[in-house]
Structure formats: C-alpha cells, structure tokens
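Trying the structure run again after the queue cleared.
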Amino acid sequence: MTRQHLTTAWTTPEPPSRPVVATGAFDILHVGHLRLLGEAHRRGHLLVVGVEDDERIRAWKGMTRPINPAADRAAMLAALRCVDGAFIISGDPDVAGWRDYCRVLESLAPRALVFTVGDPHAEPKRLAADALGAEVWEVPHVPKRSTTRIAGRLAGR
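Done. Tokens:
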C-alpha cells in the first residue's frame, strides 16, 4: 500500500514568500487563537494559517467535530487583519508525521512555525521546523480557552 501525501488548497491568493506558518483545527475561533495569530503577526512577518480538513478533524476529535466546515474556518481566519493567507490541509488522517508536514510546507520555505506552549504536537513541529530551516515560535497558552471547552459548555457539559 502506498503512503498518501498531504495536500493543500489555498483559499486566498498566492501564498507570500517565507511566511510564518500556523496549522491546526481552528474550529471555533477564540481568544487563544487570536493571541497566537496576533503574536505571530506582531513580530513583523507575513502569516499564513493551515486549517486541517473536516475528515482529519473528525478522525482525531470525534464525530461531533468539526463544528464549522474547513472552508468556513479558513475564510474566517483569512478575514483577520493579522492573517495574510489561509489554506486547507487534506489527506488521510493517519498521515500526520513531521515529515508529512515538511513535504506540504517546503514550497513555502517558512520563516517560522508558530504554536502554543503545551501544544501536544510541539515536538514534531520542532523537528519539522529544523528540517525546513525555520525558526520555532512558541506563544503562551491561554488557560481555559479551547474549542473543546467551548463546545462542552454549549452542549451543557
């Protein structure tokens, strides 16, 4: 069986050269997301955001997720002043290693990969950044702010 590769579909015009890259679900936009993206933008470089597609999020987080479809999530992110571009990452949910992300991000030649302190995928993101010749930017986590927590409150849990 051949291993699938991840693919990207840009929802905005051509990607900028040497951007800072953030990737994730970004299912229900909250202050933690805004601080992550705002901090990346504040450092003075163009920022692009990769949104995991619906199939990948459903496989990782359960059948009730995502709440918002990938195209909507990417459109909302692209509308933020601090975001210069957005794309959707698609592929088999089992294809999620750091080398897979290197393949999908290498054409961008990212300046940095940005994520929050405590990100469960921090180590693979560090490995990818190193392989891509990119910096690692870790932004402080905002406690008690997550899509999972918001969705739980909305469901009365």
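The radius of gyration is 15 Å. Worth checking whether this holds up in the mutant runs.
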